[in-house]
Amino acid sequence: MSIILITGGSGLIGMALCKLLVEQKHRVIVLSRSHREPGNGIEYAKWDIDKGIIDQNAIEQSEIIIHLAGAGVADARWTASRKKEIRESRTKSAALIVRALKDYSNKIHTVVSASAIGWYGRDHQKAPVPFSENDQPSAGFLAETCRLWEESIEPVSALGKRLVILRTGIVLSNEGGALPEFKRSLKFGIAAILGSGKQMISWIHMDDLCRIYIESIRNPAIAGIYNAVAPEPCTNKRLMLELAKRKRGNNFLSVHVPSFALKIIMGEMSMEVLKSTTVSSRKIHQTGFQFQFPTIGAALRDLSGGQ
User: Fold this and answer.
1) What is the CATH classification number for the domain harbouring 10?
2) Mind listing the pLDDT tens digit for each residue in 185-224?
3) Which pairing describes strands 53-54 and 42-48: parallel, antiparallel, or unpaired?
């Protein structure tokens, strides 16, 4: 089994992925700002992005790096300082990894880095052609962040490392992220549909996302950029109604939250919530990867305990 070094191991995706890697008998080392004792099969090593510090021994003994680090995009309103933190937490951490691979003797052969479908723009026709990995970045904060994010890790390719970049959709998990937010209004019997509800959401079940990461480190033929999204995007309205029916039966009221209200509450971030983006999973499917949860119905049935 491999020795895998992970950044962002305490985040939503990182925790799920670390657990699965440990179960598969990989040796997992998580980079952390604070000192932490080993536990649950996970070791910890020190790094500090702001100070440009990374544990040399962790780099030298690892074989694979999975780079997930980055401040949560939806955790706070997008002030100028917050946007800077979101961007630099990704670009500075990637630059630190690149520098370490240049400066320290190492046996790293594969780097798998997160990115996001924020790279893509808005669907521009009624029957949209899904965005593919070859499409250029759109305008706007998230697209620019994704572009800089990917550019900052790209130099590892010139160092002879196999680089995989996964542009990830909306991750569905009961442990955090978007799904608990979607569920919030259902406690009061309300299915809150955002704006018109017609905007397409390109999503992925957490289990499938973790399996794509594992396939990316296992399969040497996988290299370059891949969309990590389920094969069947769905509208915001369909997602909310499917979720409401599973949680409340017919005992709920669907309510549209007006776009102007979202703009007041969320500011610039509302543009992303209301954006319709249909993203293709064809490229990762062509590698032989099979989704366990290809439809929103299958995903929500699993996440609702089979209901």
Assistant:
1) 3.40.50.720
2) 999 999 999 999 999 999 999 999 999 999 999 999 999 9
3) antiparallel
